[in-house]
């Protein structure tokens, strides 16, 4: 007897993978063709830079559970390191300068993470806040960092990679998109690896993680280094691709809180939460500004409109967190789950036993035995109502004799 080979099922792509592929096609293929300079400069490029910064902070705070208030400091370290590398090493390619700037930021994050070996919670947050103040002081006081420019202002070099120029708004958008895509893939590989599971174990229960063999100190320092590396490259994109001319005030404490809000609103412990939160923080204020100018522009000055915009934005943030404390990512998951449940329910309701001419009494269905002859039906308990017998309108061949079922119309 010859055994036939079994059919191997073809791998099916999930809806999330298909959606991500469609999003990349739109981002790389459609947006560069139809987008305007305003769209690239005012919306998409800052969105990508802040989303990358939120991604880096989410690796530290969302996955490892280590709170940091110094994200803007690591952005500044990356931006000024890339500026100095490009200035003092003229032959250094731009990707190499950006990579080395990320490593410099990772070293700074490694030093800032040393207190994490002894501190937790808000005490650790205060120590990272000290890093923020120290970096701001260094940028304003040490002239060598900014090439002795007044007020620490630096001007970004030209974005040229392998002879290709990315200096126009569309090119800066594509440059930022490529960097964000690459680092997001690397971050995803990290969180699904054993290192990512170790980060989550430390976040959930540090003592239990230590008991099962997780090297807590080394994993914490690794989290600070990787997070600072990603945030440092985000700082390079913020300075080189978005602002082009940046001063130390562009990396102040407000920027750190902005990145923290992006992570909280988007969703802690999720990679997509950084992008959802960045969209909420970057895109929504622009939409509110346009809407406010259209509705209230004639009767109010710009200061009043800006105040109204902030009030509405704050109210929306509070509403989102009240509705779903886990952030926009969890809210999106709930919406997708509700759509899937309704779709399954719709499919079940359309597949009834009577569809396609099926009989309610198929011949192959097990026969329910009736009561024995001469047997007396038990009396129902007091207070219960005896249900009438079920009568099925079936053809005579579908109900064999002796089945105990009453078929046909009653007499």
Describe the protein's architecture and organization:
The longest helix is centred in the middle third of the chain and has 28 residues, at 216-243. By secondary structure, the chain is an all-alpha fold. The protein has a domain at 32-250. Helices cover 63% and strands 3% of the residues. The strands form 3 sheets. The protein has a two-stranded antiparallel ribbon. A two-stranded antiparallel ribbon has the order 2-3. Helix 3 (71-88) runs antiparallel to helix 4 (94-112). The two termini are 59 Å apart. The chain has helices spanning 15-34, 37-63, 71-88, 94-112, 121-141, 169-191, 194-204, 206-211, 216-243, 253-266, 271-296, 302-323, 328-350, and strands at 154-155, 160-161, 164-165, 245-246, 391-392, 406-407. InterPro entries: ABC_transp_permease (IPR001851), LivM-like (IPR043428). It is a multi-pass membrane protein. The chain crosses the membrane at residues 39-57, 64-83, 95-114, 121-139, 173-192, 221-243, 255-271, 278-296, 308-332. Residues 347-390 are annotated as: Disordered.
What is the helix fraction of residues, given as a range?
A: 55-70%
**What is the beta-strand fraction?**
under 5%
* DSSP E strands, number: 6
Low-confidence spans: none
The biggest sheet, with number of strands, parallel, antiparallel or mixed sense and barrel status, is: 2 strands, antiparallel
Mean of the pLDDT scores? 83
Record the strand order, biggest sheet.
Answer: 1-4
Number of helical segments? 13
Span between termini: 59 Å
Shape: globular
Indicate the structural class. mainly alpha
* Radius of gyration, whole Å: 31 Å
Order of helices and strands: HHHHHEEEHHHHEHHHHEE
């Amino acid at each position: 007897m010859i055994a036939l080979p079994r059919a191997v099922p073809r791998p099916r792509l999930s809806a999330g993978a298909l959606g991500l592929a469609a999003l990349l096609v739109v981002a790389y293929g459609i947006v560069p063709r139809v987008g305007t300079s305003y769209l690239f400069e005012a919306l998409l490029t800052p969105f990508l830079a802040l989303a990358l910064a939120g991604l880096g902070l989410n690796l530290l705070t969302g996955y490892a559970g280590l709170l940091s208030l110094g994200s803007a400091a690591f952005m500044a370290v990356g931006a000024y390191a890339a500026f100095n590398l490009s200035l003092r090493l003229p032959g250094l390619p731009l990707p190499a300068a950006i990579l080395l700037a990320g490593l410099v930021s990772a070293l700074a994050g490694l030093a800032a993470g040393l207190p994490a070996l002894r501190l937790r919670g808000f005490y650790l947050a205060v120590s990272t806040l000290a890093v923020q103040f120290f970096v701001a002081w260094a940028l304003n006081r040490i002239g060598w960092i900014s090439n002795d420019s007044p007020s620490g202002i630096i001007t970004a070099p030209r974005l040229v990679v392998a002879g290709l120029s990315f200096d126009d708004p569309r090119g800066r958008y594509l440059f930022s998109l490529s960097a964000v895509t690459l680092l997001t893939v690397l971050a995803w590989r990290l969180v699904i690896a054993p290192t990512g599971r170790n980060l989550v174990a430390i976040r959930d229960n540090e003592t239990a993680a230590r008991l099962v063999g997780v090297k807590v100190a080394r994993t914490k320092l690794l989290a600070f280094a990787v997070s600072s590396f990603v945030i440092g490259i985000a700082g390079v994109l913020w300075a080189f691709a978005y602002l082009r001319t940046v001063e130390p005030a562009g990396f102040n404490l407000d920027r750190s809180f902005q990145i923290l809000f992006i992570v909280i609103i988007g969703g802690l412990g999720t990679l997509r939460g950084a992008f959802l939160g960045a969209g909420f923080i970057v895109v929504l204020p622009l939409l509110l500004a346009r809407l406010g100018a259209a509705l209230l522009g004639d009767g109010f000055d710009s200061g009043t409109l800006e105040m109204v915009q902030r009030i509405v934005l704050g109210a929306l943030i509070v509403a989102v967190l009240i509705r779903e404390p886990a952030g926009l990512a969890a809210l999106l998951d709930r919406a997708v789950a509700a759509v899937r449940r309704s779709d399954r329910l719709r499919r079940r309701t359309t597949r009834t036993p009577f569809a396609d001419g099926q009989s309610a009494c198929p011949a192959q269905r097990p026969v329910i035995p009736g009561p024995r002859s001469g047997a007396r039906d038990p009396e129902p308990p007091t207070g219960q109502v005896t249900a009438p017998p079920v009568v099925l309108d079936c053809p005579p061949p579908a109900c064999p004799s002796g089945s105990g079922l009453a078929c046909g119309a009653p007499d």
